[in-house]
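Form 7-S
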Amino acid sequence: MFQRVQIDLATLSPVLLGLSYLKGSNCMYGKKLRSHFVAHYEIDFFIKAGGGVYADSLYHPVTEGMIHFRRPGEIFQAVLGYDCYSLCFDIIPSKEYVIKYANPVLDTIGKIIQPVQTTSYLNLFKEMMQAYTNPSPATPMLIKAQILSLLYHLYTDTVASVDAKLKNAYHGVLKKAITYMENNYQTDISVSDIAAHVDLSPNYFHKVFVSTMETTPLKYLTGLRVEHAKKLLCQSDMSIREISAECGFEHDAYFCQVFKKEAGITPAMYRKHYR
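Output:
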């Protein structure tokens, strides 16, 4: 079963489940490994370029210094050709549930990150590997601090990356599109409506949005709607049907389906758990 659990930063206490160094460049270049369901948090830090990874069915060629952050519930597939450090951790490991934790930091970290400076990441992984392979009684405390430091760096580099992308040649177009979505997600708008608002064809707008924001316009719009629905579920007495309509969903059955896919639980369960 899958659960999404809200957690405060003050209680975020990662537990290391595994740490390794993969020399995929010595294997069959371009060989696809079997895709797997991600049950815990996984972070790959690529030391040598080559091959690629699939994130949300989108293929990303691996470049040196690139980082792939995976959350529970995702599907991952690797294409060999790279060397990387691979880290697996969780907050409170469970044998009964796959738990995806939610807070402003974990929710912000991107799936694919290309830091400008990689020295701090390399040092962190080297120090973690040293502590992991030469443990002492204090090793769990040290590695916990190192994972928290890693998450902090991933968060700040994600924010910096998004800000940089919005300053590119499509800054005005993307800003205008995102503002339009934020102001109109409660209505029945489509990607075609958004594209028309920024004077681009739907296909070209989709291409520009995905290449810059690393997500589709529809997923971004759906995320806005689901986040608003969460607030209404916790802060109002509106019915599920009323919330569905308020958040731009034409049918409440479809709203419940989308909400469960995004949040891991139904709207009714979310209200019961978080209210």
